[in-house]
Structure formats: C-alpha cells, structure tokens
Design a protein that fits this description.
The protein is mainly alpha-helical and 90 residues long. 63% of the residues lie in helices and 0% in strands. It contains four helices and no strands.
Length: 90
C-alpha cells in the first residue's frame, strides 16, 4: 500500500521523485501483465477464447481496446512462459 498522501510533505525532493518513479515502474509492470493476460485469454485458451466483451468489462477497456491492447510481442512472451504456441499456430 502506498504511503498516505499526508506523508508526502515529509519527503525530500529527491525522495519524492524516487517514489514517483517507482510508482511509474509498478504501473508499467501492471500494464505489461494486463497485456499478457489479454493475449493469453484471446490467443491461448481453448476450445475458444474469452469474449471481447467479458475481457473489456474485466479490464476496464472498450471491446476495440481489448483487440488492440496486446501485440505480437506480448503473445510471444506468453508463448515462452507457457512453452506452447498460440491456438492458431498449434
């Protein structure tokens, strides 16, 4: 859990900037994980992928946002982690 906002007043300028950079890195890690989960749900599940609508609702995206959220690189990351190719290539 992040520090309460009232604790920000106690930080030095450098500490504040380090904390902000650390939060950005956490957000980027979460974004990468969400993209990998979407790639898994659409490309690696069988017999059928999760629906775009259900993923959109769960991820807080639009249906078109789910379609474009993950890339080939995200699929390759999932494939390496699972040790298998996506459904379409299997």
């Amino acid at each position: 859990m992040p520090q309460p906002l009232t604790a920000l007043d106690d930080l030095t300028s450098d500490d504040f900037l380090r904390q902000l950079a650390a939060l950005r890195e956490q957000r980027e890690q979460i974004d990468r994980h969400i993209r990998a989960c979407l790639a898994y749900a659409r490309e690696f599940t069988s017999p059928r992928p999760y629906t775009l609508a259900s993923l959109a609702e769960a991820a807080g995206l639009s249906i078109s946002g789910v379609r474009t959220a993950y890339t080939t690189a995200d699929c390759e990351t999932v494939a390496r982690a699972l040790g298998r190719a996506p459904r379409r290539q299997a």
